[in-house]
Design a protein that fits this description.
This protein has helices spanning about 5-10, 15, 25-35, 60-80. The protein has about 80 residues and is mostly helical. The longest helix has 24 residues, at about 60-80.
Length: about 80
């Protein structure tokens, strides 16, 4: 058999897509074998989250952050005014 150059050995995606039979991946085969004996329980759809507790309003969080920044500024100003 004559040696083929790299261009002839390169994988042809059109040839692979045209295959009549496509083998499932190893993970798909493993899950199919596992689910034959022990099928999975029904799961809720991801878009249906469980009810959440109501969040605090954004103005309250903003007030806490701004208040903390104001306290830090006052403390830094007080520390700067004190004699050493």
């Amino acid at each position: 058999m004559p040696e083929q150059d790299d261009t002839e050995r390169e994988f042809d995606i059109r040839w692979a897509d045209g295959a009549e039979h496509k083998e499932p991946s190893a993970r798909a085969r493993m899950l199919a074998a596992r689910w034959k004996e022990n099928p999975p329980k029904p799961q809720r759809f991801r878009a249906d989250p469980e009810p959440r507790t109501p969040r605090r309003s954004s103005w309250r969080s903003t007030a806490i952050v701004l208040g903390t920044v104001a306290v830090i500024i006052v403390l830094l100003g007080y520390a700067d005014l004190r004699p050493y």
